[in-house]
Structure formats: structure tokens, C-alpha cells
Amino acid sequence: MPTKNESITQELRQKARHLLESGQVAAFLGYTSGSVPMVMKPFVARKPEDAERLEWNSFCVLNLANYLPPLLRSFEPPRRPNDPPPEGPLPKVGVAATGCWSRNMVVQVQENQMERERVVIIGISSRGMVDRKKVLNAVNHAEITSVKEEDNSLLVKGPGLEEEINRWDVIRDNCQTCVHPDPVIFDEMIGQLQGDRDIQDRFRQVEEIENLSAQDRWQWFTSEIDSCIRCYACRNACPLCYCPTCFVDDSRPQWVGKSREPVDTAIFHILRAYHCAGRCTDCGSCESACPMGIRMRILTKKLQKDVLDLYGTEAGMSIQQPLPLSTYKMDDPQDFVLTESFKGEKK
Amino acid sequence: MLDNKDFSAWLSRLSDSHDIYGPKKTRKGMLEWARLEGGQLPDPEPGVPKSSIKTFYFPQPETLFEFSARPKKEDAFRLHEPSRHQNPRLLIGVRPCDARSVVLNSMPYQEDPYFQENRRNTFLLGYACSQGCSTCFCTWTGGSPVGQDGLDILAFLLEDGLVLEPVTERGEELLEKAGSARDLTRAQEQKVDEIRQKAPASLPEEMEPAPRLREKELMALYDAPFWQELSDSCINCGTCTFLCPTCYCFDIQDETLRGRGRRIRYWDSCMFPLFTLHASGHNPRGEKIKRVRNRFMHKLKYFPDRFGPLSCVGCGRCVRDCPVNIDIRQVMKELLAI
Amino acid sequence: MNDKAKNQKDWEPKIIAFLCNWCSYAGADLAGVSRYQYPPSLRIVRVPCSGRVSANMILDALRSGADGVLVSGCHPGDCHYISGNYYARRRFAVLKNFLEFIGIEPGRVNFSWISASEGEQFAEVAKEVTSRVKKLGPARHLVKEF
Amino acid sequence: MFYATLEGLRRFKIPHKFEFVSIISLYAQWIREGRLNVDSSWNSDGLKFTVQDPCKLVRQGLGDAVAEDLRYVIKKVAGEENFIDVWPRLSNNYCCGGGGGALQAGFVENRRKYGKLKFDQLAATGADVVITPCHNCHTQVLDICDFYGGKWKTTHLWNWLEKALIIDGSAGRAGKD
Amino acid sequence: MSTPKGSVLIVGGGIAGVQAALDLADSGFYVHLVEKSSAIGGSMSQLDKTFPTNDCSACILSPKLVECGRHLNINLLTLSEVLSIEGEPGSFRVKVRENPRYVDVDKCIACGSCAEKCPKKVPNEFDLGLGKRKAIYLRYPQAVPLKYAIDPEHCIYLKKPGRCGFCEKVCPADAINFKDTAREHDLHVGSVILALGFRPFDPSRLDFTGYGQFKNVVTSMEFERLLSPSGPCLGHMERPSDHQEPRKIAWLQCIGSRDINKACHGYCSSVCCMYAIKQAVIAKEHSESGDVDATIFFMDMRTHGKGFEAYYNRARDEGIDFKRARVHTILPAANDNLKVRFAGEDGKIAEDEFDLVVLSVGLETDPQVMRLAHELGIELDSDSFAATSCFRPVETSRKGIFVCGALAEPKDIPQSVMEASAAALEAERILHPARWTETRKKEFPPERDVHAEPPRIGVFVCSCGINIASVVDVQAVTDYAWTLPGVVFAQNNLFTCSQDTINQMAEIIKRERLNRVVVASCTPRTHEPLFQETLREAGINKFLFEMANIRDQDSWVHQDEPDAATLKAKDLVRMAVAKVRGDEPLPYNSVPVTKSALVIGAGVAGLTAALSLADQGFPVTLVERKDRLGGHARKFFRTWQGQEVQSYLQELAGMVEANANIDVHLGTTVEDVSGSVGQFRTMLSDGTEVKHGAAIVAVGAESFKPRQGRWNYLYGKNPNVHTLLELDQRFIKDDPGLKGLNQAVFIHCVGSRVPERPYCSRVCCTHAIDQAIHLKEMNPDMDIFMLYRDIRTYGKREHLYQKARSLGIVFIRYDLDNLPRVSETSGRLVVEVKDPIIDAEVTLHPDLLILASAVRPRDDVGELSKLFKCAMTSDGFLLEAHMKLRPVDFATDGVYLAGLCHYPKPVEETIAQAKAAASRAGLVLSRDAVPAESITAVVNAQKCTGCSVCTKVCAYHAVNMDANSQKAVVDTGLCKGCGACVAGCRSDAITLKNLGNEQIMAAVEAAMEDF
Questions:
Q1: With contact defined as beta carbons under 8 Å apart, do C2 and E1010 qualify?
Q2: Less CB within 10 Å around the terminal CB: N or C of chain C?
Q3: In chain E, what is the straight-line distance between the N-terminal and C-terminal CA atoms, in Å?
């Protein structure tokens, strides 16, 4: 009997092949496997037969929304910046999407990065993706040469190594605390929607840090990022980071030094996260992409928590809902404002 | 032959006059370069540390000079040398692939005073690899798990100590201070030989791609169709470049701070949007596919055409840590197939 | 050099104050007109609106060596540009929490609403912010050095 | 009668040439004009006076002017320093509580309950004498003083005017007791 | 009439006078603004906050005052009085006496040294005597002109020459002139506008209030000062007796209003209910203890303005206690507290004790103003307000002399501002041939192109007499400035702003070929324009300039720390130099104007606006969606003053049709709008494309018809149930059937002030009562019952209410919990309602049931508002740019609104607003080009991601996505330079000219420089 992911893979190939064959899409964006265990390759199927290379498993950790806008652009006829848009409908692209990916697609639509009509979304309700680093920890960083996946376990093999690991134990933190595993926009579904998950302590990681002293928080933050090599994998894996010139690349003004110095690295991480405030869906791509094992996701998670607490919104839940930092309410909380807290203190 | 205690004692003595570094396991479980003090020994884990040793030759950032940004002060616009590191550095536990990268990088940086100064000032004590990892392929690139290129001293790790072989004169000088060296026992000699024999065999079969690639026609490689699929999955991050021991591209920037300024050199990556960006705004490598291609063409074609060897030591870092599993070994095979 | 100065006992903090032109900057003027005295720690940067102030600017001030930052705008509803301070309020609420989350001491980065007629309040805020920053000591966390 | 006529003409907008004047205003006018000579020196004991402003005369009738005249006369008669005003006063003074037929119609309990407010107000002045220039007020104030145990004397105005009157501007007072 | 004079006299420098002055001066007329006190600003400057937005009064007023004070075409005559006006429209001779100030305004730098030294303390009239000022004084901190004045009543020297004279000794500018004398001015003007305002009613007349007797009874105006941060207790809210914060405050409404008994003011003062609520809200907010009990004693809560009812509801939710009770007396209690006795609606007597009682005093005309009016031959009405009529709301009895603001009737600020613009329009209508004949225009030499030059910065460090120099070592600062990068000249001046220094500065700029200038002196808010003008005179672009505020924000606030202040001054200069280095010449943006207008809607508002503009020679396109002119007003019988509406409307429509300048498009709607102020292009549904410089939206509203639901009351089911307008129809037809009726019942607030339509429709109380009176007059035997919630016959309309009651019309109050119930038995209407006064159910059998139903916004207003990029309120009315001070402008420049689409209002207010809108539109149409902001946002398309954050946060719709490139583009005509987009942009793709991130960062970095 095939595993759940094997079934999904089959159905995904079928649907992608159909979309490509029928000409509904010019390409289908999914994953294929590569040469290293537990690392999947985002893959663009351009011909119906490519669909057979598509694969779905628990290691599809990078958010495919990240690839969509440039992929869609690549199918537009070339034109100069001020030429009018081409007439008639433009080619579409199909894509597989879990809850968070689809929410990032919503944000991309809201932020004018792509048109909803141009993507055919095959929804997959997510069962959570595996954190390669957790697996490595579980085997004490022994070398792994193959991993076989069952529905609820992973069989890990390497030189002198064979171990079965409980799948849920090595699921990424963001997936373990994920509330919305279902796609919010899709054209077709593979499998059933599972509904929102009831997670009591979805912000536990954040709260643990909040409860530290300022000094300890700084200690945590600096030690978390001190290994950063400024490779920008976190930024580049993020579907929100589409600026042609990122603030770190700017030299006029020079917001932040470009090299590996603690203050500049800190400011890079602060601003990168801050720029995601109200937009981040906690897809975890940043953390998954980081070669140095930095848990920068906690930063965006904190912002997600505050935006939810302060303004009651979560990113990408619907195309109509305004992005929280480009809107306001008259009675937004303002206890943080000194002159307002003066009032409070005197009370 | 030094037992671990004597080795430690030697290092401890050396640390008065040298800054000593070696790979240690971090709290996150990965192997990384760390300052070793008071005779600390590196962790004897197999494989290469996360970062390559290029940090020591090609610091991130390197201050080229400093200046005052206030034209009317006495030191107005006068450039001065930054205070530089004084003590010689000794790196311990360098894997032969990393050591070889210094030799390769030295080729384009022949005339670079900063690089050469750092090279003069840095001593390498290498650890021979007794077993290749699944991502290793030094043998393809002209290296060897027990190779000596770039090292001052090569060590073989045995259960009860290390066998140290001087490679350079200055390595020999350094070793002289080790003092209490003992002669090798037969068993130990056998063990070293066994490593020399078996280690290369644990790696993929030699292909000698460099000469074959040099022979290929440039444009045929450049126009190969597989680049498209490769770039489809690439996210243009700098992981491969920054972890790579032989990626040596840099950018330069002036920084000012509170009325003072400095010019720094820091790592660049052909993956980044500013790479080869012209002042006009035009970038000959404006698209992802061109950047991805550049990285591999540089390593596997342009560099060999210019200097002979590949600009790759087969350490496997890029293979291990690429978030989208772009594998240079695959690329090599694709290119060789053309 | 900077550090040495900061270690001295008579260290006076430098606080960058981004004040909106229409309310808080005018409030600061009124403090002067009314001769309310406050510590000489503020370095006021006049901006058109608190909505002009971005997270980048605040971080840049800290990176440049400011011991503290104050951003002050019109009271909600009073914005000369209709809604600038409402957007600012959201940006700052999120930023302030976030900076504190990563360990920037509460009191380093401050926000206030001060109207053109609140000269005394301006002086009060200046005193309060200065005393908070003084208690924290010289900023170190995000100060760029070379 | 006075008020009924006044209000009748006013409410039904009956054209008329009447001028409504209270005797109190005339007293005041005459005192001002020197036609009535009064002197407060008789009040050597310093009897304290206060006043009730009758609704029909002041609030609903002729307004504050007559009430001011009333005070003027009292001050002249009893001495400026011996007058203690109530609060509230003039048009805004409390009703005695005996109006609207309450005195005649037999609602004794209710009337005295309403009058309690008046009693408290007058008692608060500590005055020895309450001038009530209205028969109805007079009876009510007299009754509540008695009922609630007040210490004052309730009188009309003329009783005291007469005490202060200087006859012929020279030889003592008429009716000096 | 020969060519009229191109100048106007405005009497009164309050907000109405100031608004009229600015409107006129900006549209081509020279204005003499006469103000009795030493500074303009009027009553509004004394207020703390304004309702319903709680805006800081000084903050929103100040910019207007400053603009007025600096205006080249406004001659400010403070301390002045009008003596006489002779002549006729187009040519009046006016005598004005300017009383001596004893301070030379050209020299005074408002440093305040004089007042500091002046030994004579005087009760401060600005604080209504609650605080003290000196005999030499500034009326208030933001006074315009910002010049001191000597009060001759109290000056020791002026009383006894030779004594005192300290001010003269300490004045660093030699500005004191004890020999100053009164001057008389003979002015020749074409028209006159009276904006003399009101005075607050003096409650000492009302002895029951205890005002003047008890310290803790204050008037509402006094309470404003107690709340104000610039007031006597610096905004700490103290009660007078012991300077403690009051915990329990009562407001007493209708003090001196709606009182024909003692106050002799039968009218309603219109504003007191709202300001009392505002004060209660602010008191709660202000309170340091945080628990203030606020109680408002009222008769009818009159929150009939835009946003007022919501404000009232919010106040109630916030726990302010509204007591429908008339207070009998304030009694003294222990601790200087006050006991308040009152009878509730249930008739029960209750008592409560308060720390402070605020008397919500009404507005009345100052007797001095009455005398002046009398002398000028201006007729006043029985309430002593200037007599006007509904159809001519700003015209006085004397031709060519107009009135605005509270002088004509008590009113709030927006209404006054509206009338001010309307009065300005009336003057323009007479004087338009003389437009631009008397105005002055500043000429500047051509500007040197400095683009290619390296920065050559000049730094001028001001001593400001001793204001700066006594604390800051100005010489050290000057020497220091020389060392800064790019600085090629630095100089210290005694007074940088003095005329001779200014002239010298212009010379130095030329001689040294400076291309950037820094002045280190006082605040740019007052002085930047002066120095910028100097740059222009010296032939360089005025935006190459920065100020370092080393006085207001340095020497004055660090008086005891000269060393630190000097260090700070150096920092500030260095910051300014760093900033100015990056400044670039900016264009003096302007947009050429198409000198014609589009008016949408041909009701009373649209017709009036169209005529008002056409009469001045501006072509107007008038668009009406229906196929005839007249709009909503075609259904009206008469105004509350009794004038017939239909005949007026016919006259108005006739004039419009006859006017050659008006192009009427009936049965037409607006399809599309593009462009911005000065250059709109509008497509009409009939295919016409209209090019116009300004637009007035006057699309009206409609009457709510309660065909079903909770407010139905058998409307549409029983033939005897009418709306007000339907009854008006019967009046217009003079329906004889109305005469024989026995009983009529009116139900107020049908569909207004209810959850689904929470606003008050403002007009219905007056309308219903007027109809009731009309019915009663037709048939005095008819019994008429008004079922109401609060009677809102504001202003002089209160007289109608009084009349209705005197006619025997019965008023029964109901509330939302106890709605009247209407039923039918065999065709006969039965109305049941509970009368709270007699606490009993009343059953009525009316022959006629009239529903005073709501005025509701039209559904299609939203479409139109989108076309013109205008905002709407949550109620669906159009939202003006600023509720208080820009009541007829939209946030979009060049678009104005009038009439019912703004909010329900009676015809006289509609006419005033339409004229105001025409006046505002005239500001644009009267000039060849309109200035636009120079410091605007600019997009770097290469960096732009097209994410549209900038377009979302722009309040002016100035940033849009280019349809082709999908990158942001800025419409510089609309951009106001606030920078919200810049801060919102993650990729630094949009920036502000001369206020870009790089420049701000340069200043920040400079601040941190070690030296």
C-alpha cells in the first residue's frame, strides 16, 4: 500500500500532466528529488512527460510561492518597462501549495506581484515537513546516505547507521505549531482539507524568549546569529523578499554594513524580519534554507504574534483583508506611546 | 609521533606566540573553526568544518585603509593603514582539500598584498582524512585526502596520538619546537600507510575532468540546455559561494562612521544582484540563469583555461548545504557529457 | 574614542529625536518659548510627519551611536497629513516590541504624541527619555564600531 | 389678588394700562428719596434678619428687582450688618411650601414636608427674624418654625419699619416700646 | 458702478475673519484685517480641543494664523478699531484707529526678556483672569503677530513716566517705544466683512449658578483654559479653590441660552451641548487620577452636527453621566464643593455633590459690537445678532457689508469657516472686475544653476540679541562651523533676521558664490520662509537651505548649562550642514489652471455654487442627473423663517438658465474623472468631455422612506401617514383637506439616531415644528402632539419651539426603549406612547401622522467619491478634508462639496456652504497656475517592486501604480510631501526630495560624530 505522500505524488503527477497536456498551464512548479538525502529540488515541469519527475514527500521545505512571480514573468513576452501590457491572456503556471504557501500567494496577489488568474493552484493540506537538522541531531550528526519515508516514521541509513525515527519528532517547529495547514486559495485539491488545527501553545518558542530578561534576550539573539555568514539564503528563500534591491544591497544610503560584523549582521536580521511583519506566514523557508542552522524564524514568529495580538490579523488569510501595516484603525493600541503610558502610570 | 598530551603541551607553548585555531563542535552540533587556547585540541570529527579556511586569508571584511571624513581636521583625508593582526596564526586540523584551496586562490591573488600577507602569516597543520564523506570528491579535482598541497605540516590521526610530517621548511621549523617527539612504532607506521592507501579509495573514482574541460569549446558549454533546469531551482543565495574555499570574488565599499571612514573589501557572490552590476544600471549577468552558469563556468572552465586546475577542491560543502540540492558533481558530469 | 568618552562619569547621552514638523517640533519650540528646561541630550531631526519615520531610520540612529531614540508625532486624529501618525503607530508598535524582543532595553527607543501646545509635556518627555536612557547607560548593542 | 390680576392680564394678553407696584418697592423708593426716614440704631442688640422671597411676588411676579428692594429696606431698617441673606435667593429662592392652596386645603403633612427645605434654609442663616412679605408665606413659615422647633420670629416687613421710623426727622420714634 | 476697489476690509481676527481674509487675499484681493486685541486668533485660540475630532485647537489654527500674518496681501491691523464706514458697495471709506502697542513690531523678536523683567502682574484676559500675565505681554504663545504689546492700563511707566521702564532697558532689540501713539488709517475698500464673533455669556447675572460666589463654579470658557496645556495650570486641570484635580465635575447646560426668563436669550447657542461633552471627555482623559465622574445636566441633547451623535454615544459609553434635568440651585458644600439639587424627569428631587461645576454658557453679542453695528447701520435682530435671511445668509442689512461667524447666530467653527468663505465670495462677486488690481507680487531674480558646483555652504550663526548668546558661545560655534566640510563662509550676527542682516546675507551669498545656506538661530517654523526668500533674492533656489534651531530647542531650554548648550549647538550646526549638503534645487511646482468649473448636482447647492462662479465670469458646467433643475428643494414648502422655497427656487433656476456662463447638462452623470487640481478632465454620460480647474460636488441626499421595518409606523399602508416632505407637498398645493382635521401627531427621529443610521438628521425637528405651527395656524382647534427624543431647534430656531409650545402644541418625549406604537382600528390611526412626565400611557387618534424621517445619503455617492478620490464617512456622507477648518474642501485639492451630500442641513446652510465652495473653487480659478508642493515624493523605478504599499498609505492618492510598468508613480500635483510612502517602502524605491533617507541619515550620523 502506498504511503500518503506516495499517493499525493501520484495524484500530483496526474494533475500536472493533465494541466500541461491540455495546455492550461505552460509549466508546473513542484519538487523533484536530487542527489542528497532529505534535500528536495524545486522543479519546473515544462513538458507533460516532466510531470513524472514530480515528487511529494516530507522534505519539500522551501516555499514554492517564492518561485512563482519570476516564473510567471518568464512566460511574458519581453517588453520595455513602459510598454503597455501584452494583449490577451498570458500563459498560466500550475503549482502545488500547502496552507502557508497558498497564504504567501495571497500576499503576493495583494502586493501586486502576481495575478491570481495566472496560477492554477493544486492544494495539498500539509502534514508538516521534516527538519533535516532535527534528523541530524537525532543521529548525532552521523553521516546519512539514505532516508526512507513511511507515513509516521523515517528509516535513516548511513555508514554504520540504521535508525527508525518517529516522523512527528523531527517535523519543523513551524509545522508543529501550524494552525492553518489547509490552502486558503486553490483550484483543485489533492486529498481532504483537515481544518484549522487547535494549537494551544503556538507561540511557546516566542514566549520563552519574551520571558527572559533584556540582557538574556540580547544574549540569545546575538548567539543565535553570530554564525551568520550573510549568504542571504534566508532572504532568498523567502517569498516576501522580492525587492530588486534589498536594503542590504543599497549603498546610497548604506543602511547596514555588508560584511560579517556583529552589528551589521544584527541589523540585517532585525530589518529582514521587520520587513516581513504582517506578511509572514511562518512557512519556515528561511530557517530551512539557512546553512548555519540559525533559527531566524523565531523573529518573524514574534512579529506574527504581535500583529495578531495588536491588530487581530494573520497574513494571507484572504485577498481582501488589508495588510496590517498598510492600514490602521483609529483605536489601535498605543500603550507603548510614552505620553499615553504617562496617563496610565498616573492612574 | 606525538601523543595527544604532548601535542597539547606543544600547542600550549605555541599559543604564546601564535593564535591557534581548529575545528570544534558548536552547541548546534556542527563543526566550525574556533580559537584554541591553553593547549586545547580540535575535535577529531571526520569531514570539513562548516566554513572553509578562506576566512583567514580573505577576511570578511578586510579593511584596506582608514581615513578621516572631515576635510578640515589635521588628519583630513589622510589615508592610514589599519592596525593589523600581529601574531602569526596556526590552523590545526586543516583538511587537505581546504589547504589546497590556498594554493589555488594564490594563483589569481599572486599580486594581492593583503592575501599574500595573510598567507605568510598563517601556518597550516593538516589532518589527513582516513575516510571520505558521501559529499567528498577531492580526487576529481586533483586533490587527495592525504594530500600535502598548501600545508606546512601534515598529520595522521591515530588512536593514541598523531603522526606529524613536515611539508614546508617553516613547517619543519615549527615542528622542531614540538620537542618530545617519539619514533613511530611498526603498527603506527602500518596504520599511516593504510590511511594513505585506503582513504583515496573511499572516494569516487578519479575522472580528471580538468584537462577534459579545458579542451571543450567554451560556447558549447555556455549554451548547454541543462543550465535552465539548474537555475529553475536555484534561489541565488550565497551559501555555495560563501562556504566554498575557492570562491574568492570580492566587492569594495567605503564606510563612514561618526566622521571617520574606512575602505573595506568583503566577499561577493556571483549569485548576488550587485555582482558585475555596471554603474549604468546594466548587468551582463542580470538574470538568474546567467549567474548560476557563471559560478560553474568560472570554476570549471574559465579558471582551468587560465590557470590549469579547476577552481574547486572537492570539499563538498556546496553539495552538503545547498538548500535546493544543486550538485557541482552533477554539473561536472553534464559538462563532460557535452 | 567613542567608548572612552562613554565610560567617563559625566557621560551625557545623545538621543536622536525625530519630531514631526507640525506638532512635536512645534511643541519643542513651545517648550523653549516657555523656557521649560530639560537635559541637553536630544538631537532633534525635523521630519514632516511621524509617518515619515521608518524602522530603518531608527535602527540607523542606533547604529550611528545614539544612546536613545525618540519619535514623536501629532496625537492620533491631529495629523497634518490626515493619517500619517496612524500608520506610524502601527509600525512603531510592532517595531518597539520587536526591538525589545531581541534584547534592546526598554527605554532605548521611545515614542510619544506631543501637540504644538504641549510645551511642558515636551520637556517632560525629554526629561523622562533622558533619565530612562541614563539609567540604561551608553548604548552598545547596535552601535557600529570600527 | 395682586398676582392673580398680574398673571391674568399677562397670560390672556389683555391690553391694560396698569402698573403693578409692590408696597415694598415703594418703601424702598421713599427711603431712597428721603421721604421715609429710617434709622437702624434701635437694633442695638443686633437682631439678625433674614428674608423669604415670596414666589408670587418675586419669582412669578415682579422679579428680582422687588426682592432687591426688600433687602434694601431690611438693611436700612435693621442695619446693614444685621442682614443675613439666604441661599438660594431672589427669584431662585425656594418656595415656602405653603402655596398652591396647601395651607388651606388640609394637606398638612405634605405641606410641612415641602416646608422642611425652607426650614433648613432659614435655620441655616441663624437669623432671629424672618421677614415674610406675603401672608401665605407668613403663615407657612410661622408653622414650620413652630413644627420643626425653629427659634426665629416670623413677621411682615412693616412691623420693623415702624420701629425704625424717624418722625419729623428729629424727636425720636413713633411707637417706641 | 464704476470699477470697484480691489480690496476688502475684514473686521474681527477670529477664525472666521482669518478664513475670509485668506480666501480673499489668495484669490486676488487686498485685505485689511482689523483686530481689536494685540493678536489674531479669536476665541478659537483659547480653546483646548475641538469637537468632534478632539483636535488640538491651537495646532490646527496656528498654521492659518501664521499664513495670515505673513501674507503679502493681508494688512494686519491689530489693536485696532473701526470708527466709521462711509460709501457704497465697490467703494467704502473706512476710518480705523490703531491703538499704540508701545513695541516696535519690526524690531521685537519676541524673546520675552521684557515680560520676564516687567514687575507688574495683571490678570490674564486670555485665561479669563484665571492666570496672570505682565503689563507687557504676548496674548498667547502662538500669537500672530508674535510681538509683545504694552497694556497701557497697567504699565507703570506709562502711568507715571520715569518710573520702571525695565522693559526698555532689557530689550535686546531696542523695540520698546513708550512714545507710541494711536494712529488713524483711512482705508478705501470695495467691501466689508464683519466677523466680530461673540462673547461668552456672563453667568453672574444668574445668581442660582453661584458664579462669582463660589470659587469652584466656572464657565465653560474658563474650563477650556483650565484644560489647556498653555492655560493657567498648564493643562493639569485644577479647580480654582485649592488647585486640586477635581474628581467629580458637573456641567450645567443652557446657561444663558434657551432662557427667556433671566438671561433674556431665547435662542439656543448651538455649540454648548457638544463642547460640554467634549470637555467631559477631555477631562476624563486629562485626569491624572484617571477617575473623573462627569455629569452633564441638560434639557435636550443637541448633537445635530456631523459626527456629533456618534461622539455623544461614545461619551455615554465611556461613562459620562447625562442627566436630563434642569438644575435649580448650586449650594455650597464642605471643602468648597458644590451641592447640586435637581429634579429628574420623573419629578423626583435629587441632590449630588461635585468638586467643580462648569457652566455651559451660551454665546451672545458683545455690547461694544452692538454699538458698532448701530453706528455702521447694520440691523440686528431681536437677539442682537446681525439680521440675515435664509436665502441671503451672509448679507447684512447694509449692501456691500457681509457677515460671518457667530455674529449672525451662535454657531460652531466649521459653520463659521463656511460662512467666512461665503462672505468672501459675496465680496468677490461685487469686486471681481478689480481682481489682482491692488495685490502685490514678489519678484525674484533668475536663479543660478548650482547643479554642477561642489557645495559652497555659508553658515550664519545668530546671537538673537542675548537670547542665544547668553547661553551658547556663538563665536565658538561660528569658528567651529568654518571647519565643517563644504563650509566656505561662517559669520555670527546679532540678529540674523533683522532687515540689515538679511540684506547683507543676500550680498554674501552673491559675493561668496554660496550655493547652500545654514542659519543657526530660532525655529524654521517661523523663520524659514524669511530666509528662504533671502536666498531667492540672492538668486539661488530657496530649497538649498537648512536651519539649526539653537534658540527654541537649545539656549532657551538649557539656560543653566552653557557648555552643554554650546556643544549641542555645534552638533545642530553640523547636522544642518550635513543635511544641506544633500539638498538640491527643487522646482517651484505649479499646475496651470483651466479657468472653469464643474458643478455636479443642480439642487439649491449646485445652482447657488454655479451662479456664484458664473457671476464672476468663470464658465461653469452644471451636471444634473435628473431632467430638471431644483433637486431636493422642489419638495420644500418654506424655510423656518417662513420664506417660500418654491418661488425662490424658480428664481434661482431662471437665473441659472439665463446665465451665459453656465452650461447645463440635464439627465447626465459623471462617468470618469482624471487629472488633478487646475486640470481635471471629466467624461459625462452624454459623451461630453469637460476640462475644468475645479469641481464642486453637490449631489444632495434623499429622504428616508420607512416602507418597512421597525420605523414603518404604517407608512405606505395608511393613507394618513406622511413624511415631512409629503406634508410640505400638501402645503404647497394649499390642500384644503388639512383644515378640517382634529388631531395631528408627529413622530420625530424616524430612522435617525438609530443603530443603523446613528446620525441626527439635523433639520427634522425644526421642520416638523414649523409644520405643526402651520397646521395650528390653519386650524387653531387642531390638537397637535409631537413625539420626540430631543428637540434640536438649534440657534434662533429655538424661537419656533417656544412659539409651538405657546400655541399649545404638546410635546411628549420617547426614547428608543419605548417607541411609540402605531396601529389601525377600522382605518383609524391609533398612536400609543408613554409620557414620561405624567408617567402614563397616552393613546392618540390622529387624523394625520407625520413621520420626521431621516435624511439619508444617496447610494451612488460612493461611486462619485471614488472618481474624485474623496473619502466618505461611515454614514455614507462625503468626508471633507478637515471637519473643523476645511469644511467644504476635500482632501483632494480642487474638489469641494456643498449641501446635503456633506450632511443634512437646512437651506440657509446649504446656500452658505455652496457659496463657500464657490469661494474655495475661486481660489483655484482666479489664478493662472496653482502652486504645488515642492518637497514631493519621487520614485526610483529600478528599485520599485510595485508592491503598492505606497499607494495604500497615501492619504492623498498621489501615488499610483503605472498601468504599464506596474511601478509606483507620484502625481506631484497631489503629493503633500508627508513621507508616509517613504517609510512604508521596504526597498527605498520612493523617497522625498531633500528629505530622503540618505539626507536624514547624514544628519543623524553627523549628530553622533565625535569631535
A1: yes
A2: N
A3: 72
Q: Which residue of B has its CA nearest to C60?
A: B257
Question: Which residue carries 403663615 as its cell?
Answer: D139
Compute the average pLDDT of residues B173-199. Answer: 86
Residue C9's pLDDT band, with cuts at 50, 70 and 90, is low
**Which CATH number is E241's domain given?**
3.50.50.60
Count of domains observed in chain C: 1
- Indicate if E42 and E109 belong to the same structural domain: no
Q: How many domains does chain E have?
A: 7
Residue type, E326: R
Give the domain-ending residue among E521, E553, E581.
E581
Cβ of C30 within 8 Å of Cβ of E112? The answer is no
Residue E439 placed within a domain: yes
Q: Where are the domains of chain A?
A: 132-170, 204-328
Report helix angle E604-614 to E907-925, nearest 10.
40
Chains that touch E (3 or more CB pairs under 8 A): A, B, C, D
Instruction: Write phi, then psi, for D84 (nearest 5 degrees).
Output: -120, 120
Domain residues for E272? 200-363
Q: Is the pLDDT of residue E679 over 50?
A: yes
What HEC string does E442-480 produce?
CCCCCCCCCCCCCCCEEEEEECCCCCCCCCCCHHHHHHH
Residue E267 exposure: Cα atoms within 13 Å on the Cβ side: 22
Does the distance separating the beta carbons of B257 and E942 come in below 8 Å?
Answer: no
List Cα–Cα distances, B257 to C7, C16, C63, in angstroms.
Answer: 19, 16, 9
Task: State whether E336 and E375 are in the same domain.
Answer: no
Which amino acid appears at position E968 of this protein?
A
Closest CA to E402 of E796, E1, E16: E16
Cβ–Cβ < 8 Å for C130, C41? yes
Alpha helices in A161-260 (DSSP H): 173-176, 204-210, 214-225, 233-236
Asked whether the beta carbons of residue A242 and residue E945 sit closer than 8 angstroms, the reply is yes
Side by side, the strands of the sheet bearing E840-844 are E821-825, E828-835, E840-844
Give the Cα separation of C55 and C70 in Å (integer): 12
Instruction: Report the pLDDT averaged over residues E509-515.
Output: 95
Mean pLDDT of E766-771: 97
Residue E256 shares a structural domain with residue E327: yes
Do the chains B and D touch each other, judged by at least 3 C-beta pairs below 8 angstroms?
no
C1 vs C12: CA distance, rounded Å: 15
E573 and E482, same structural domain? yes
CATH T-level fold of D2-169? Rossmann fold (3.40.50)
What is the spatial distance between Cα E771 and Cα E732, in angstroms, rounded to a whole number? 12
The verdict on E971 and E884 lying in the same domain is no
Kindly state the cell numbers that stand for B146. 592525504
| CB contact set of D89 (below 8 Å; sequence gap of 6+) | D53, D67, E207
Cβ–Cβ contacts within 10 Å for residue B183, how many?
A: 7
- For the stretch E785-816, pLDDT in tens is 999 999 999 999 999 999 999 999 999 999 99
Residue E158 belongs to domain with CATH number: 3.30.70.20
Q: What percent of chain E has pLDDT over 90?
A: 80
B327 and chain A in contact, CB less than 8 A: yes
pTM recorded for the entire structure: 0.74
Cell of E209: 449658578
- Written as one letter, the residue type at D148 is Y
A165 to chain C, any CB pair closer than 8 A? The answer is no
> Strand E293-298's sheet: what is its strand order?
E217-219, E356-361, E248-255, E293-298, E321-324
Which chains are adjacent to chain C, needing at least 3 Cβ pairs under 8 Å?
A, B, E
Residue segments in chain A with a per-residue pLDDT below the cut of 70: 343-347
Cell matching residue D47: 437682631
Cα first-last separation, chain A: 67
